[in-house]
């Protein structure tokens, strides 16, 4: 048996305690940037939401998906918008000569699922095309609607699971929200950012739902 002097035992205890203390002290600090970033984004989203016009939804009459998106637009070479988003949002994505993803891993923030097949994922329009139509896009030109449907600069396009995309359909935040509550802040901020950029209006119920979701930030 090895006997340690009192000084040696104290030194060992200090070495054991210090790392634990550092971790405990660092944890809140590590979480602060994320909270700070979310709070900042939420504050900006609230300002943008306050500027949006509140109105009753327009009629769905005349809406057809082809009025926004006869097909995905091409961006670089053979890659269209959908393929570009799947490559952006996935990990270890492999594409064939035609730019179509044949392998990869995708995370669906709506429901927290990790998917390993391109057949299991969809590229979601955060503000659905039919919803945008009733929010003012009905009055747009064909070119502007096409630009909206293929927008890679705003947070309008997102890779999600096929099942989550089907469940959402063309609904707004007053009727449908991501299954993961942890994503509500990001979802509401993205929705507002898109509507603000394109000057689409909101309904009273939609605005209330967005404000409620921003409270999770």
Outline the structure in words.
The chain is an alpha+beta fold. 47% of the residues lie in helices and 14% in strands. The chain contains seven helices and seven strands, in the order αββαββββααβααα. It has helices at 6-51, 81-89, 129-134, 142-149, 162-168, 184-198, 204-214; strands at 74-76, 79-80, 91-95, 101-108, 113-115, 121-125, 157-161. The strands form three sheets. It has a three-stranded antiparallel beta sheet, covered by helices on one side. A two-stranded antiparallel sheet has the order 1-2. A two-stranded antiparallel ribbon has the order 6-7. A hairpin with a 5-residue loop joins strand 3 and strand 4 (101-108).
In short:
The chain has helices at 6-51, 81-89, 129-134, 142-149, 162-168, 184-198, 204-214, and strands spanning 74-76, 79-80, 91-95, 101-108, 113-115, 121-125, 157-161.
Q: How big is the Rg?
A: 23 Å
Euclidean distance between termini CA atoms: 56 Å
Largest sheet: 3 strands, antiparallel
How many β strands by DSSP? 7
- Given as residue ranges, the uncertain stretches (5+ residues, pLDDT < 50) are 1-33
The protein's oligomeric status is: single chain
Instruction: Give the SSE string.
Output: HEEHEEEEHHEHHH
Fraction of residues in helices?
40-55%
Strand order of the largest sheet: 3-4-5
Shape: globular
Question: What count of helical segments does DSSP give?
Answer: 7
Instruction: Let me know the average pLDDT.
Output: 86
* Strand content range: 5-15%
Briefly note the structural class of the backbone.
Answer: alpha+beta
């Amino acid at each position: 048996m090895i006997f340690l002097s009192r000084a040696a035992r104290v030194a060992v205890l200090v070495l054991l305690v210090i790392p634990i203390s550092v971790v405990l002290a660092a944890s809140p600090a590590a979480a602060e940037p994320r909270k700070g970033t979310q709070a900042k984004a939420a504050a900006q989203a609230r300002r943008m939401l306050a500027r949006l016009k509140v109105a009753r939804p327009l009629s769905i009459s005349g809406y057809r998906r082809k009025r926004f998106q006869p097909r995905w637009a091409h961006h670089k070479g053979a890659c269209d918008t959908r393929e570009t988003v799947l490559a952006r949002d996935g990990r270890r994505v492999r594409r064939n000569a035609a730019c179509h993803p044949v392998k990869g891993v995708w995370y669906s923030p709506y429901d927290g699922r990790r998917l390993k097949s391109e057949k299991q994922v969809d590229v979601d329009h955060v503000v659905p095309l039919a919803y945008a139509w009733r929010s003012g896009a009905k009055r747009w030109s064909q070119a502007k609607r096409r630009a909206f449907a293929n927008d890679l600069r705003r947070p309008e396009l997102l890779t999600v699971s096929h099942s989550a995309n089907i469940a959402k359909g063309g609904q707004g935040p007053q009727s449908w929200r991501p299954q993961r509550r942890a994503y509500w802040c990001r979802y509401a901020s993205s929705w507002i950012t898109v509507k603000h950029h394109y000057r689409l209006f909101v309904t009273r119920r939609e605005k209330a739902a967005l404000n409620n979701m921003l409270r999770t930030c």
